[in-house]
Backbone:
C-alpha cells in the first residue's frame, strides 16, 4: 500500500527529472545555435562537435564554450583589443 508521502516523493522526483532533461536539451541547443551563428568558433571547432560536447557535459560544456568564445581568455577578444 502506498502512503501519500511516497506518492509525493515520486511526483517530485519525476518533476525534477523532467526539469533536468529539459535544461540539458536547452543548453545543448543554445550552444549549438550560437556556435552555428559564429563565423569562426574557438579553435575552429565545428558546431556539431560543440553540440556533442554540450550534450555530453551540459553545464561544463557550456562554461567551456563561453570561456573559449566570449570571455577575456578567448583569442578573438585578444585580437580585437
Residues:
Amino acid at each position: 500500500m502506498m502512503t501519500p508521502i511516497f506518492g509525493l516523493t515520486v511526483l517530485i522526483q519525476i518533476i525534477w527529472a523532467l526539469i533536468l532533461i529539459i535544461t540539458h536539451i536547452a543548453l545543448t541547443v543554445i550552444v549549438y545555435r550560437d556556435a552555428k551563428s559564429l563565423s569562426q568558433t574557438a579553435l575552429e571547432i565545428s558546431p556539431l562537435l560543440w553540440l556533442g560536447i554540450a550534450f555530453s557535459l551540459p553545464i561544463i560544456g557550456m562554461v567551456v564554450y563561453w570561456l573559449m568564445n566570449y570571455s577575456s581568455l578567448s583569442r578573438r577578444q585578444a585580437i580585437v583589443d
About this structure: The helical segments are 4-37, 47-56, 58-69, 75-80. The chain has one domain: 10-80.
